[in-house]
Structures are given as C-alpha cells and as structure tokens.
Design a protein that fits this description.
heterodimer, A: alpha/beta, Rossmann fold, 2 domains, four-stranded parallel beta sheet, 14 helices, B: mainly alpha, two-stranded antiparallel ribbon, 2 strands, about 80% helix, globular
Chain lengths: ~400, ~325
C-alpha cells in the first residue's frame, strides 16, 4: 500500500468513527429507561475534607429517592469521587465522569478553585455543571457559560444587604471592617462598598485584613476600636469570628456588629465565643440553622432529623453542611421531576433555568427559588437576624437581591 | 556474546516501549489519554527529584514548590503576555534552575534531614507567596488558560497533541539526564552521595556539584509543572502544597532510587494507585493506599525498577548457565 492510500484508509476509519460518535450522541447520555447517572466531586480527603459530608448527604438523599421508586420511574445512580479540593484532581475526576462513566451531568462539584478548573471544559462539552457549591459571583453568567449554574446566595449580595441596612438605619455611621485577605473576603468587601456607593469613602474609617494562616487577629480588633468606628463589619471564617467576638467584648468595644453568614453557626462560632458576648450580632441568613433552638419543633427540621437517622446515621446532627446537602439534593430531584421524560442535557438545563417559586424545607420560610434563562442564581433572598443571646431572631422583611 | 545480545535486546525493548507509547493515544479515549499525559508529566518531575535524592543523596520535601513555580511561570506568560505555550516551557525551566540553584547554595550547607526541613519550609511557603502576588497570580482564584490546539492541521485532538508534546519533552529530558548521569559528572554526583569526604579528596567540588544538581533537579520539576499547567488549563496556589511534594518523593522511592526508568514506574504508581484505592474503599482510600505502599516497599525494596532489574539478571544468568551446561554436554 502506498503512503497516500494508507493515509486515505486512515481517514476513512476516522470518518466512520466520527459518524459513530454522532450517532451515539443522539441517544441521551447517562439515561436509560430505568436509571439516570449523575456525577459529583467532593473533598473527602485533604485540608477541605470537612465539606465532604455534603457529598455524602446528597448520596444519602438519593438513596431515599430510590427507595421511594426513583424519579419518573428512574433510579438515580450517583457517582461521587474524591478530588481532595485539588483542581488537577477535579479535572481528572470530572473527565472520568463525563467521558468514561458517561454521566448525564455534573451536580454540585464543591469549591471555587475546583469549579473554576472545569468551567470551560463543561461548557465546551455542553454538559451541565449544575448547582455548584461555592459562593463566588461568577457562576451566574448564562450568556458566556450557559451550562453552569450556581446555588447559594453569593457573597457580594450579602455585603450589599448589610450596606443597605447601614445607610438606612445608622445616620452617623463610622464603619470599621475586618476581612480575610483572599477572594472570599474581597467579594464581601466589594459587595459592601458597592452597596454604600458614593458614601463608602466617607463612612468607612478603617479596613483591616488578616491572612488565613495568622494565629490571631487581636491587634486588628484593637486598631479598629481605636479608629472610633461604631459599626463593625466582620468578614471572617469561624475560627477568627470567635476571636473577634471575644476580643471586642473583652476590650469593651460595643459597635453595631455585622457578622458574615459564613460564620453564623451557633454551634461552631457563637457558643465558643460566648452567648452573652454574641448578643446583638447581626447576620443575614438563608437557611434554617440546625443548632438553633427556634427550629426545634419545625416540621421540616424534624423530617430532616428522621431522614438523617435513617439514611445518614454516621452524619452529625449539629453539622449545618448536612442540611445544605439535603436542600440541594431536593432541588435537583425537583428539577429532574420537572424534566419529565426528556432527560437530554439541553432540557435538564432548560428546566433548571425555569424554576418558579420553589421552597426548600431547610431554607428560611418565605425564600423562594426562581431561575430564568437570564438568571442562573437560584437563591437570592436573605433575611437579617439579630442574636438575642439564645437564638437568631429574624427581623425586617425578606431582602431580594434580584430586585433593585 | 551475551553482552552484545543484551545491548541489542535493550535497544529493541526501548523501541518497543516507544512504539507502544506512540500508539497509546490512538487506542484510548480522551480521558485516558489525559491520564497518561499526567503520568508523563509526573515522570519528568520524579526524574528531576530522583537526580537529587537517588543519585546525589539529598532529600527534598519541597519539590512541589518548583512544580508550582514552573506552572505559574507558564500561566502568567500565557495569561499576561500572550506568549505561545511552547516558549514558556524553557523559560519555566530556566526560572526554576536559577531559583533552585540560589536556594541550593545556602541550603546545601545543611545535611540530610536538615535540608529536608529547609525544603519542607519552601513547600509550605510557596502557596502563600503565590496568593500574596495577587495581581500576577490571580490570588486563590488562580488563572484559567485555554487548551492548546494541535498546529499544522494535524489529525489529532487536543488531548493527543498534548500527549505527544509531553512525550517529546520527556524523551529529550530523559536522554539529557541519562547522558549527565552516566559520564564523569554522573560519577562525581554519585560519589558525593556515597562518601562526600572521599569525593572531595578526589577533587570533586562538592558544594558546587550539589547546588548544580539541585538547580537541574528543580528545572526538571519546573518543566513538569509548566506542562501540567498547560494540560490542566488552570493553576491555583493550593494545588502545589506539601502533599504534592510528598507524592513526588513517593514516586521516586517506589519507582526505584537512582534509576532513570524508575521515574516512569513511580509516575504510574502515583497516578493510578490512589484511584484504585478509591475504587476499593470510598471510606478510607488513603488507608488502602498506605497498604499498597507498604506492600510495595516490602516486596520491592529497591523500587519497581530495581525489582525488574533483579528479575532480568536472574533470568539472563539462568539462561547463561543453561547455555554453559548445554556446551558441556556437547
């Protein structure tokens, strides 16, 4: 055989193969008459493994769905891999899910860096990257990334909510801010400053930052006190939030204290910091805090406890992440139910982008999930709450960030 | 006779391995090709570390840092200055060579475990330093890149193209390493490992050699990092943590200290065994991995390459013996 002939033969083979590929694409990937295959990555090991319980809780919820007959007669086959919160591993595992395991779509991959590493890939493959577990703002970009959708309220939105409160209720505000020096802290800061608008320069008297590796933030708190601030926006993760609440109480600084939602947990922040010292804190909530006594007799909470005991007994009942996983799994089940028998990737994305007034059991009463082809941010409502020494007392009306 | 036969066999073996390596990406799905590209990348990094640890006897717990510096050099050049990815690889090598050499100069006054600790500090520091220069590195958000397309209308997809680029770089670097380590320089490097006082008495400039080996080793790892940045099309600081450094060291020891081929075996191990461990047990994958590690070390104390060499010697020796016995009968 001459070289050209061989080359032609090769081309022919490639041509047939690609035709076969086209033919295969017309059947719906990851879906049979009895099953729908869903892929996920979570950090089950490594430094961020505390989040891994979300992936397990999701699996436990799908077990319940399958026990009850599945969705439209199809069982959910949930495949979840450990990515150790490491982007190269995420890329590898997600490619395995999409190309080898042939899942219908990827659901709730966790973390901003891991999701960033597959963002382009998922959109090139036209495979949904649905309800991602991160608070960054960039997941709501349907124009450029029509296959990626967020889930939780983003940090900038929350920052704006506090800013609006300050502008309305504190006439002589002098604001001091403590923030973590990374994208999370800066996202909050940007939202807050944008919310204050032109007044930001005048109202903010001091900004202090810390590195996540710092041992303590005591000196920053002292500096903020000395700046004469009477409003304190506390953008810290739980470990530092405890320190900040304690220290400001110890040195007798009593500003109007906004604590970011990230650290609003009673169990891991307010109790260690001291309930008395925490009195008067203000935060924005969107979920029912499972350790908050006010939900102790709430039907949705009790249902959750029953489910936890039956399907996820090894999970902790005071871990808010298990409530988070439960919520988002219910949202997915709803989306799939709404998709009916057309479980093509296009239709799943279309249905995810047309959710109307859906309430989830462990979201605050009144929060409704709404999405549209131009709105890929499912949860956009939050409500302010003040800590009364025992529980978060919700006040004011539900604030909807999607309405200007 | 037997020696000539052995050499011919070795060449044939190498040719076979190369043929298989070239055929591989056409026989597998894109995802598998990607995995094997990662194996090749790990192999380059592990060879780099093996030069330092296996051949020169210095322990580094910080090569993940050079991997990261290489990856970021490439990412920043592509992202900020739009430079072709091919050009960024030698630059990443040069940057890591210089950084490695400069770090090596003072650090190499430290012996053994103390050097291990100093390099450990480097591994801890680099992710934070990367976050600090946010303007360049994108902070903890990292930098998103585009995957390179195959040039000249080659009938390859992106994964296959990246695989061949990596394979090409690997072949060049392996030949360079083999030349470096086999000649006079190689003897000096090994002499320092075996007895540095004796080596110095023979006129080997121990300090210079050590820091040059450190630099070259860092450059190899940096090239691997650069390729990984291109293959993953995303870099983020926390990828290049201490765990990566340990992974590379594991690859060196499992593959076989002071062997060049060991880098490939070590890379296969660190790429695939954690995945198998996860398939076996979702609850405790790292415990399973640990068992694999211990079994490997117990069964093959000289690494996979050492084990294969031993096997080869036994086989050829028994063949020679048989040949001799037959001769006697005649």
């Amino acid at each position: 055989m001459s070289l050209t002939k061989r080359f032609l033969a090769l081309l022919l083979v490639l041509g047939v193969l690609s035709l076969a590929g086209v033919a295969a694409a017309q059947t719906v990937v990851g879906v049979t008459a009895t099953e729908i295959k869903i892929g996920n990555t979570n950090p089950y090991s490594g430094p961020a493994s505390a989040y891994g319980t979300i992936g397990k809780a999701i699996g436990a919820y799908f077990k319940k769905v399958n026990d009850e007959g599945g969705i439209n007669g199809r069982k959910i086959n949930y495949i979840t891999y450990d990515d150790q919160y490491s982007p190269p591993k995420t890329v590898e595992m997600v490619r395995k899910l999409v190309e080898q395991d042939q899942v219908a779509f990827i659901f709730q991959p966790l973390g901003t860096p891991p999701n960033s590493s597959i963002h382009k890939y998922m959109n090139e493959k036209k495979t949904p990257q649905l309800f991602v577990a991160t608070g960054a703002t960039k997941w709501n970009d349907p124009k450029n990334f029509p296959w990626t959708m967020g889930f939780q309220p983003n940090y900038q939105t929350e920052g704006k909510i506090y800013a609006a409160y300050v502008l309305k209720n504190v006439p002589d505000a002098k604001v001091g801010i403590l923030y973590q020096n990374d994208d999370y802290g800066k996202d909050y800061l940007k939202g807050f400053e944008d919310g204050l608008g032109d007044a930001a320069k005048k109202l903010i008297v001091m900004k202090q930052s810390y590195e996540v590796t710092d041992p303590t933030i005591d000196s920053q708190i002292v500096n903020l006190k000395n700046s004469g601030a009477n409003v304190f926006f506390n953008i810290t993760i739980p470990k530092f939030a405890v320190q900040a609440i304690k220290k400001s109480n110890d040195i007798g600084w009593k500003p109007l204290h906004f604590l970011n939602n990230v650290s609003s947990s009673l169990g891991t922040v307010l109790k260690p910091a001291g309930l008395e010292a925490s009195r008067g804190l203000i935060t924005a909530l969107y979920m029912k805090e499972v350790t908050d006594p006010q939900w102790k007799n709430d039907k949705a909470y009790l249902d959750w406890v029953v489910w936890m005991k039956k399907y996820y007994p090894e999970g902790a009942l005071d871990d808010q992440f298990n409530a988070y996983g439960y919520n988002v799994a219910i949202l997915l089940a709803h989306t799939l139910k709404q998709s009916g028998n057309d479980l093509s990737r296009e239709n799943i994305m279309r249905q995810a982008a047309s959710i109307k007034n859906l309430e989830l059991p462990l979201l605050l009463p009144g929060i409704k999930i709404n999405t549209s082809p131009t709105d890929f941010a499912p949860i956009e409502q939050e409500q302010l709450a003040k800590f009364d020494g025992e529980r978060w007392a919700l006040f004011g009306e539900m604030i909807d960030a999607s309405k200007k | 006779m037997a020696r000539v036969g052995g050499a011919a066999l070795k060449t044939a073996g190498l040719a076979l391995v190369l043929a298989v390596a070239c055929a591989l990406p056409f026989a597998m799905s894109g995802f598998r090709v990607f995995q094997f590209t990662q194996v090749l990348i790990y192999a380059i990094a592990i060879l780099g570390l093996n030069m330092l640890t296996g051949f020169n006897g210095q322990i580094s717990l910080g090569h993940g840092a050079f991997y990261g510096i290489g990856a970021y050099t490439t990412a920043i050049m592509i992202d900020k200055w739009n430079i072709g990815y091919g050009w960024t690889i030698p630059v990443a090598a040069a940057v890591c060579l210089v950084v490695g050499f400069l770090f090596g100069r003072p650090a190499l006054r430290l012996e053994g475990l103390y050097l291990a600790l100093a390099t450990f500090a480097l591994a801890l520091a680099v992710p934070q330093i990367l976050k600090y220069f946010e303007h360049w590195t994108g902070g903890s958000q990292g930098i998103v890149l585009s995957k390179p397309k195959p040039p000249w209308g080659l009938p390859l997809n992106e994964d296959q193209w990246l695989y061949f680029v990596t394979l090409g770089v690997l072949i060049v670097l392996f030949i360079l390493a083999s030349n470096l380590l086999s000649g006079r320089t190689g003897r000096a490097i090994k002499a320092i490992r075996d007895n540095h006082i004796a080596a110095e008495a023979m006129g080997v400039n121990s300090a210079l050699y050590k820091s040059v080996v450190f630099g070259v080793s860092a450059a190899y790892t940096g090239v691997a990092g650069a390729l990984s940045g291109i293959a993953i099309a995303f870099v983020a600081p926390d990828t290049f943590d201490v765990f990566l450094s340990f992974t590379l060291l594991t690859g060196v020891v499992i593959g076989g200290l002071a062997t060049i081929s060991g880098a490939i075996f070590g890379a296969l191990f660190v790429q695939f065994v954690p995945n198998w461990a996860q398939d076996i047990s979702k609850a405790a994958p790292w415990a399973i991995f640990g068992i694999f590690l211990i079994v490997f070390m117990y069964v093959m104390p000289h690494g996979i390459a050492g084990f294969l060499r031993l096997l080869w010697i036994r086989m050829t020796r028994s063949a020679v013996m048989r040949g001799k016995a037959e001769g006697e009968v005649q």
